[in-house]
Amino acid sequence: MSPFPSSPGHRNPPWRYGVYVFPIGPVLLLLSRTALELFVQASEAGSLAIGLSTFAVTLIAGWSSVLCSAVVAVALVMDALALRDHPYWNPNPWLAGVVGIGHLAGAELAYPYLLSVPAIGYYVYRRRQHIGGDGGSGPGPADPSGDRPALES
After folding, report:
1. The pTM is what?
2. pLDDT tens digits along 19-56
3. 88 φ, ψ to 5°?
4. How distant, in Å, are the alpha carbons of 8, 61, 66, 87 from that of 123?
5. How many angstroms separate the CA atoms of 62 and 122, rounded?
6. What is the DSSP letter of 149?
7. Position 119 confidence tier, pLDDT thresholds 50, 70, 90
8. Residue 130: which of 120, 115, 143, 117 has the closest Cα?
9. Which of the four pLDDT bands, split at 50, 70 and 90, describes residue 131?
10. DSSP class per residue in 15-78
């Protein structure tokens, strides 16, 4: 059973906002790695102020990347769970969980982002295509039987 009732007002659960921030994690990781490189250069040059500031940016951006990726992973699973009874589109919560864990692992390893970011981007694309972005009044599929448009002779 879905965490939200099947009333029309709950067709588009609020978990989607947590899913929509998925590009922020990789950007923060890139910022953290760049600040780490600047920290190493500043340490070798002996610049204390620049070294401390880049160290602070490294820590803040790195932990913010982990936090943002955790929010995306939880929101992705909860959104898929909330939409599993939707009449137009029902994503697989297990697959969403695997992609979410991959996104969370990308906050430390970076390479899982190469798989999770396109997968979550496709999830968001499909979600907006079938449900819409504003209150669940989206267009839905071309015909009620599935994703394929009706072939007319």
Report:
1. 0.74
2. 888 999 999 999 999 999 999 998 888 888 888 999 99
3. -95, -30
4. 22, 26, 21, 17
5. 25
6. P
7. very high
8. 143
9. confident
10. THHHHTTTTHHHHHHHHHHHHHHHHHHHHHHT-HHHHHHHHHHHHHHHHHHHHHHHHHHHHHHH
